[in-house]
Amino acid sequence: MILPDKHISLLNTALKIGAIYTSGGRSYVVCNLFRLVAAAKSGGENGYAFRVAENGYTDGTRGFMIDGAKPYWNIWSANSPGRFFIDIDQKIKLRIKFNTSYANPYYRAALGDFAGHDTEAEAPSVNCTNAVDGSIDYYPSFPLRLVFLVACSGISWKSVRSDINRFYIKVFGTFVLGGEEAEVALIESPDHVNTDGTTRSYNQMYELGNIGSMYQYLRFELYVGYTDTGGDKILFKVPYIDSQRVKLNQIQEGISLGQFLWFYIYNPYSSSSGFDNVIIPDYKTKIPISNEEMEFNPNNGTPYDGRYVLKFSAKIVGDYYMDIPGYGSVDIHGYYDVLAQGTIYKKKSGESIQIDYETIGRIYLDTNSQYNNFQLPIPTEWSSYKLDSGRLNFFIRMKSQP
């Protein structure tokens, strides 16, 4: 609601801005002009939202709004009884307007200051709109995309200081809530955005460099400022508003690697096409293969597209023979099939693929003193994009004996 420019009355003003208080179970309208300007709807001291003589303030801070206080009128309306200014400590603060026509200025209560007052003026804010329920999913090796909606309100920041010509978003990062924050980025508003109150809001996208796993939380603060003749940014934090915080959820890139779990041992007398599923005790000692020696690498294409290659090292430790329960001493050197089992979620198509013990290649294991190094391509129909996700377990099955 915007109050009229003319024929404004004290009672009408008080009613329109909701200056009504309750005492002794009865409601009253604030019809004293000075109280209408200085009284606290919430917070403040002794019923006042400002440092006034009635609160005992007679020093240079008289007329300043008390931290945490809220007057009845909307401080973010361009037309109001208050004005924003830069104090000696270089912080923006709100003060009741002063009458400067006298040698000793004093704060005033003028009904005309409510002409054109917008009771529903929006407070400035910065909102990261691609956060869902306060969280952003991201891939650690990709730039983190942030999309902002900045509400500027109708305040003319140029009237606070004529040099002010930009909004800024400061981005702070921390690994744990309550931990030390680091300034991660300073984002300057686009050229078309004005700070004279004519730009009420704007959208902006920003890509934060590769942050890896450095931060679990980001916080955004809104500033106004300008660049001085020396190229330095002179910034002033927009007061009386809350900052926004978002949580970062790191998403696994690529396919997670499982273990080499067991062998399928050749048995010519088996009813299952010559293979039995036999778990070999102590297989890590006999044929050591660990995740530390396994990795997926793109085989070709861009860093994000192309067929993946499974790399690992393995060898037989000891001699060629091993005691297998139910089989006796078995020659375990020779050719092995490498099989995969698991589920892959394909990012681009949105489909899930179930891999059920399918062969990706053959290797030969023996007792060489050096590890045998292997590279086996993952079929492109399974996964060819870095952001495909899932988990593959790998198995080796003896194909034949030499």
Number of strands: 27
Number of helices, where a helix is a run of at least 4 consecutive DSSP H or I residues: 3
The average pLDDT value, as a whole number, equals 81
Question: Which band does the percent of strand residues land in?
Answer: 35-45%
The largest sheet, given as strand count, sense and whether it forms a barrel, is:
6 strands, mixed
The computed structural class is: mainly beta
Helix share bin: under 10%
Query: What's the gyration radius in Å?
Result: 35 Å
Order of helices and strands: HEEHEEEEEEEEEEEEEEEEEHEEEEEEEE
- Distance from N terminus to C terminus (CA atoms, Å) equals 90 Å
Low-confidence stretches: 264-272, 274-295
Task: Note the overall shape.
Answer: elongated
Walk me through the structure:
The termini are far apart. The chain is built from three helices and 27 strands. 4% of the residues lie in helices and 42% in strands. It has helices spanning 10-16, 33-38, 283-286; strands at residues 20-23, 26-29, 40-42, 70-71, 82-86, 92-96, 98-99, 106-107, 125-128, 135-138, 144-151, 166-174, 182-188, 201-208, 217-227, 233-237, 244-250, 256-266, 275-278, 295-298, 308-314, 321-324, 328-331, 334-345, 352-365, 372-377, 389-400. It is elongated, with a radius of gyration of 35 Å. 25% of the residues are buried. The protein is mainly beta and 402 residues long. Strands 10, 12, 13, 15, 16 and 17 form a six-stranded mixed beta sheet that branches. It has a five-stranded mixed beta sheet with strand order 19-18-27-24-25, with no helix packed on it. The longest helix is centred in the first third of the chain and has 7 residues, at 10-16.
